[in-house]
Amino acid sequence: MAKKLYVGGLPYATTDTELRDAFSQAGTVASATVIMDKMSGRSKGFGFVEMSSDEEAQKAIEMMNGKDFGGRTLTVNEARPMEDRPRRDFRGGGNDRGGYGGGRNSGGRSW
Fold this sequence. Notes:
The chain is of the alpha+beta class. It has a four-stranded antiparallel sheet with strand order 2-3-1-6. A two-stranded antiparallel ribbon has the order 4-5. It is globular, with a radius of gyration of 20 Å. The N and C termini lie far apart (63 Å).
């Protein structure tokens, strides 16, 4: 069964092909994708590699984790499903008053 790996610390110029080639030393790579920022089109510095078997995935982790790759140190581990990660709250503020004022419980009364 194929196993997906998270690869962090990639140089920003890394391509999908370079990522695939690097991990093919450990076995058969089913897919390799560098994650790109939707707005800028530039790499986010991490990606995912799917190895064909659990054994090849473990070998890739052992071979590549902590390795220098293009001047940066790679972090390689088993990818976690999205639902297992904590949700990020982009609202900011840090209080539970619901935003930018004017609300019923806000300090900025509008009456």
